[in-house]
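Practice problem: DUF1697 domain-containing protein
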Amino acid sequence: MSTIAFLRAINITNHFVKMEELRDVLVAHGFSNVQTYIQSGNVVFDDPTQSYAEAEHLIATQLEDCFGFAVATFLRSAAELVELEQACPFTPSEIDPQAALYVTFVQHEPDAEAQARLAQYQNELDTFRITGRHVWWLRHKQRGESKFSGAKLERAIKQAGTARNITTIRAMIAKYGFTK
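Answer key — structure tokens:
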């Protein structure tokens, strides 16, 4: 079975990493069948021999040592990714053609206070739903029209996360043939 690492802050601002170098670091630390999907920190590999928490820590530590900046790491199994996509909390009728739907991966489910802080940002442009360790953000119009950002989301829930467009998640599921 496959595991997917979603890496935060790869190939944005001054955090540029060649995917070949990223793969090499993981292979050197015992991960097998390492593949990267697009240039934004999506890594697919065989299930690790250690727990996800240990693997997340190992990957984050090794990437920071190698590249010189912190790389928060969020692991999900292929089955979890399929379940996530199938459990979208928004109905098709809620998602208009100009909308963008993002999933932010976090370490633990935001507590009630964090959810209340995030709800304060909800408006006609931005709608949020939380399902476990995933924060869904439906941006109803073009990016420039919304005043919300990933940084505001992290401050609201008081933990780091990394967001992916649902189209990226669906493309990964299709490309790698992930199933439950």
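Discussion: The chain has a mean pLDDT of 93. Students who identified this feature from the tokens alone can consider the problem solved.
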